[in-house]
Amino acid sequence: MFNSQRPRPEDLPTSSQLIRATALAAVAAGAILVAVVLPSEYAIDPTGIGGALGLTEMGEVKLQLAKEAAADAATGSASAAPAAQVASPTATAAKADAPQRSETMKLTLAPGQGAEIKATMAKGARLNFNWSVEGGRVNFDTHADAPGIAYHGYAKGKDTTGESGELVAAFDGKHGWFWRNRSSAPVTITLRTDGAYSDIRRVV
Amino acid sequence: MSFRSIAPPGGVLRAALLAASLLLLCFAIGAEAWAHNVAEGDKGYIQESSGILFWPFVYLGAKHMVTGYDHLLFLFGVIFFLYRMKDIGLYVTLFAIGHSTTMLFGVLTGISANAYIIDAIIGLSVVYKALDNLGAYQRWFGVQPNTKAATLIFGFFHGFGLATKILEFEIANEGLIPNLLAFNIGVEIGQLLALGTILILMGFWRRTPSFMRHAFAVNTILMTAGFVLVGYQLAGLAAA
């Protein structure tokens, strides 16, 4: 155009240089694909390089998350309608005069496993909680859902040995905790709850 | 020199349609699904991991660059008329200095700009470079803006875009700096891989007598893609 000189033909790479570069690029791409991309994305590691670099582990986490998301989507679409009918009477009952109750629940998570415990609470209801981990650390996500509300987050953390606090329900629905054990050994979580909720159970 | 002739409309239209479909494909791949509000894919992995993970972050940085169509379009514009290794090295280094600086600054200070605005500016950088390649600034204003300075300055904006994405990933504090450096190394490796591919393809293309004739059309398409990116991001800003 205007801001550059037309290149002289002798400055350009020759055809044989270009063909050699193409062949080299194809070989390099194949090596990168097998050694790096396949382990990182699909945990397929024929060379063992991905395992040595920690890439295969990334691939495993991604595959697991994708599988769980697919399972979630499948159950979510199947149970969406009945859940809405069941949930509303329970929520109104809880609102009328929320009984105070307290529970202690224990669960063990294998490496890579996730679990979720949720309590049914009415809007504004309060729940004191305390959970602790034996044998390691977990990632957690304290959140709620209700018909029409897929996710409402309260708190999140990584590599935690426990947490305590008060959970105030933001709306009528199910409120609770999701934990994931990302360590290489099983862990046990003990959850103590005390407050105004009508039903508490492990949902995942 | 004057290059008034452009490729026949049929060829331009075909190339424009190809560019548009490639862009749409990129947007479709960018969509994410959620479970327990835990993202899938790279984001999910980063949100669930902590500690120093050198090679995974090198990989993520390289992947971001190789699949980042906005960075690739800008790089394509920058090297369009560069063919000496010395020049390519200089411009790529300027771009790398620019985006590394703001990426590290953005993540370490936690200062993040609005992602839509930054990405719209990145789209504008593509438009700017395409117009520069077409000689528009000389034609319109009689001046040639410093191409090295422009590459560095747009590098700063691209780095802010990277920082904003990393902040969205909620990367753990534990091992943050080694992971960021690994990510940045990956970005450079990805840039070299992408650039190598672009250069080989352009090498074949430059040798054809029609290169200069097609150059006008291709930079026009590049500018179109830049405008699409700007519009896509501004629409996202309006809808958010």
Automatic annotation (TrEMBL), chain A:
Spans through the membrane: 21-38
Residue segments, region Disordered: 80-102
Stretches with biased composition (Low complexity): 80-97
Keyword Transmembrane helix attributed: yes
Alphabetized UniProt keyword annotations: Membrane, Transmembrane, Transmembrane helix
Domain of life per record: Bacteria
Official protein name in the record: Transmembrane anchor protein
Species the sequence originates in: Sphingopyxis lindanitolerans
Native organism taxonomy: Bacteria, Pseudomonadati, Pseudomonadota, Alphaproteobacteria, Sphingomonadales
Automatic annotation (TrEMBL), chain B:
Source domain of life: Bacteria
Coiled-coil region list: none
Transmembrane segments: 103-128, 149-167, 179-204, 216-235
Keyword Transmembrane helix: yes
The keyword Glycoprotein is assigned to this record: no
Record key words, sorted: Membrane, Transmembrane, Transmembrane helix
InterPro entries reported for this sequence: Put_HupE_UreJ
Protein name: HupE/UreJ family protein
Taxon lineage: Bacteria, Pseudomonadati, Pseudomonadota, Alphaproteobacteria, Sphingomonadales
